[in-house]
Structures are given as C-alpha cells and as structure tokens.
Design a protein that fits this description.
CATH superfamily of the largest domain: NAD(P)-binding Rossmann-like Domain
Number of helices: 15
CATH architecture of the largest domain: 3-Layer(aba) Sandwich
Number of domains: 3
CATH topology of the largest domain: Rossmann fold
Distance between the termini: 50 Å
Radius of gyration: 24 Å
Largest sheet: 11 strands, mixed
Number of strands: 17
Structural class: alpha/beta
Helix content: 25-40%
Length: about 425
C-alpha cells in the first residue's frame, strides 16, 4: 500500500527521536498503521546537521513553508516550538489540506481555538498527544478511554524540571537556587528556566487537559499560575512533619459555578501515589464518576519518550486518513458545536485547604490573636505546630494547616494577621489538596 508521506519540521531533541524510532520500528509501526509511514522531507535551519542525522536518506530543506505547501505531503509534524512561526506553519498546513501532528503545548494553549476551528473547517486532524506529559498517553486516555465518564477533576505533576528540583530540595535539604543550578548542569533545566520554574509550562498543559476533560474552549489566559521560586527547604521540611509532600501541580476541577484552572505548589498527603513521584517523572491523576481515580505515570520529556507520543499520533492519523471527518474523535473530545460555556473561576472563588507559616514574637496572646482572626473569617484549624525559639532569639515559627475555605477568605485573614504588631514579615501561604 502507498506509504503515508510525512513532512517533519525541526530535528532537534524530539525530531531526532521521531526519525530514529520511525526508522528502527518501521515494520512494527507499518503493521499497526496498515501502511508504511515515511519521512519524505525534513525542514531545519541546520541543514548539514539534519543531513548528518538522517544519513542522506531524507530530502532536507531550510524552507519549512515549502514543506507545508508540498502536494505530496500527507501529514506535517511540527516540532519547532514557539508561538509565532509555528502558528503560521500549522495554519498554512491546515489550509493546504494537511493533517498536523504537534508537540507544541504553548502554541495550542494560546492559539488552540483558532487552530482547531481551521482544522474542523478543512476536514483535517490536529493531533497533540506529545504536548502533555511526553510519552504518557494522557490525551488519548481522556479523549477515548474515559469517554463514558463525567470527569470530576485532574491533578498532575506535568513538569519534570520542577519535580526534580522539589525532590532534591526535600531529599537533601538544599536551597532552591542551588538545586536549580545543578538541574541546569545536568540538562534537566534550560539556561532560561522561567517557563518551568514559574509554572507556565505546566499551565499550558493543564489548560489543554481541562478543555478535553470538560468540553470547554482552550483558555490559558484565565489560568492561575504560581511557580516554585519562593519555596524554601524549611517549608518542605515542615510539610514532611505533618505527613505531606510539596509538588507543583496543575489542577482543574469541575464546580457547580464553573471550572478551576490553576498551577501552584501544593501539599499532598505523603501516602498518595502521586506524592511519591520523584525526579523528572510525570504523573497525572484523573477522577471520573464511573471509574474512580486513575493514575498515568511515565517520562514527561526526552527524545524518544516524546517521539513515542508523536508516532502514536502519526499512526492514528494514518488509520483515519481517509475517514469521514464527522466520524473522527473531536480535537477536544466533545463535538465542536457542543462545547460548554462554563466559566473559569477566578482564584478568589476556589475552595481548598491551606498551609500557613508565621514568624511571631514569643510572647503570650500571640496565638490567640491569630486564631481569633481566622475564626472571624470562618476558617478552622486542622493541625498546628509551634516551634520553640532558637537560643538567644525572641521569635518563633507557628505552622498551621486549615480546613477548606474560599481563597478570598484566607487572603483577607492573612492581611489582618500580617498587620499584627507581633507578626514579623509576610505569612507563607501554600495550598493543600487531599486528592481523594
């Protein structure tokens, strides 16, 4: 049978993995897809490097736009990344009737609605399994495997860099800056790690998972995003004393009045499986009404793990290449004309539990003043730890875990607590999820 011809845009870390895995497992992939899948042309600015990687077996060009316009190409694989040129190339490929496979979560989180609408109009597919959690097939699980379920919530460790940093801080008691430097030397963190450590990368991914889980448009601009740069080894150690571990989680949850969409450091009970995901590994916990909790775990980045997801999409597109567009799985799992208009809730309207750490003067009545403020705002305390002052000091730490309350209530209480004469500096506030 005639091979499916692929135009590959970019042969960096993931692109080289796609080329290598396709070549190594060609027969197995062909048996699964029903026909051979071959890279017919490769576009990359580093033409000589690209030719070296492929050994001259693939036509190489530095003009990506010629690839998306090539009438012989059936599927375009976009692995360039970024928001601008990638967007132009993907939309041009769609306009030319090409199916698209991409690992570009940033592109889809910001321009997904436009891209999916264009693909729907042209009757082509946009597949993006590799955009979330690398080699972990979470997109397929949500779109197909859990299709009978009303998804209640998703919580995921979906950035390996931050998970590595938090694991090292907990295991070795090191400061954030020290572990980040090590992560950069090991290649786990970029030279500019902002997207990772500030939570932006995780927010791109949870935005896509939220849209698929609840059948809503992609709305990255409404996500609440908080990174790990202010976390201290001290708070990680205190969390351990209470039986919790701190993870950077992407969380989305269906509520009666809307959808939560947030990324932030989160205390998770140490007995939960997801709390024990360490290093650069990813894990996504999905709660469905029929199936209960399901956990998806694996490598969230890397050349061949991500290539695995890209090629899985290539196989899916190949199988459905000639299928009636109306009978394909919709991009966001729900029919485009049946997407819900559920609002994304502002963070003030989110209800969760909290970890609070206060630095206070060691004198009678301080704790009573703090608990009175919390009580006035309807916030009850679940657990508390009061540390003795170090020798020669007159200040001590008070650490509290609260029961669930609205974020706006805890914010109001914190502002009043910080105004007390006996409280030194700002209150450290972290969110806590039981995930049960």
């Amino acid at each position: 049978m005639k091979p499916i011809k692929v135009g590959l845009l970019g042969i960096g870390t993931v692109g080289s993995g796609v080329y290598n895995v396709l070549a190594r497992n060609a027969e197995e992939i062909s048996r699964r897809a029903g026909r051979p899948i071959s890279i017919a042309v490769l576009a990359d600015k580093a033409v000589l490097r690209a030719r070296d990687i492929t050994g001259g077996t693939v036509r190489v060009t530095d003009d990506a736009f010629s690839v998306v316009a090539d009438p012989d190409i059936d599927i375009v694989v976009e692995l360039i990344g970024g928001y601008t040129i990638a967007r132009e190339l993907v939309l041009a490929a769609i306009e030319n009737g090409k199916h698209v496979v991409t690992a570009n979560k940033a592109l889809l989180a910001t321009h997904g609605n436009t891209i999916f609408a264009a693909a729907q109009k042209k009757g082509v597919m946009v597949a993006f399994e590799a955009a979330v959690a690398g080699g972990v097939p979470i997109i397929k699980a949500l779109r197909e495997g859990l299709t009978a379920n009303r998804i209640e919530w998703i919580a995921g460790i979906i950035n390996g860099t931050t998970n590595y940093i938090l694991s090292e801080m907990r295991d070795k008691g090191l400061a954030f800056d020290e572990v980040l430097s090590t992560a950069q030397k090991l290649g786990y963190a970029e030279a500019d790690p902002t997207f990772d450590i500030e939570g932006v990368d995780a927010a791109h991914k949870i935005t896509l998972l939220s849209a698929i889980a609840f059948g809503i448009p992609v709305q990255f601009d409404k996500a609440y995003v908080e990174g790990i740069t202010r976390l201290t080894a001290e708070d990680i150690a205190y969390a351990e004393q209470f039986g919790y571990r701190i993870k950077l989680l992407g969380i989305t949850r269906r509520q009666a009045n809307g959808v939560e969409l947030r990324v932030h450091p989160t205390l998770v009970p140490a007995r939960r499986l997801i709390a024990n995901v360490e290093g650069v590994m990813n894990a996504v916990l999905v709660q469905g009404d029929a199936v209960g909790a399901t956990l998806y775990y694996g490598r969230g980045a890397g050349s061949e793990p991500t290539a695995s997801a890209v090629i899985a999409d290539l196989v899916d597109v190949t199988r459905l290449h000639t299928a009636d567009p109306e009978h394909r799985v919709p991009h966001l799992a729900f029919r485009p004309d049946r997407l819900a208009d559920l609002p994304i809730l502002p963070m003030d309207e989110v209800r969760t539990s909290y970890y609070l750490r206060l630095r206070v003067e060691d004198k009678p009545g301080v704790l009573a003043d703090v608990t009175r403020i919390l009580a006035d705002d309807g916030i009850s305390i679940d657990a508390m730890l009061q540390k003795e002052p170090a020798e020669g000091e007159d200040q001590a730490d008070i650490i509290m875990l609260t029961h669930q309350c609205l974020e706006k209530r805890i914010n109001a209480a914190i502002a009043r607590i910080e105004s007390l004469d006996t409280v030194r500096g700002n209150v450290v506030r972290l969110r806590l999820e039981q995930l049960q």
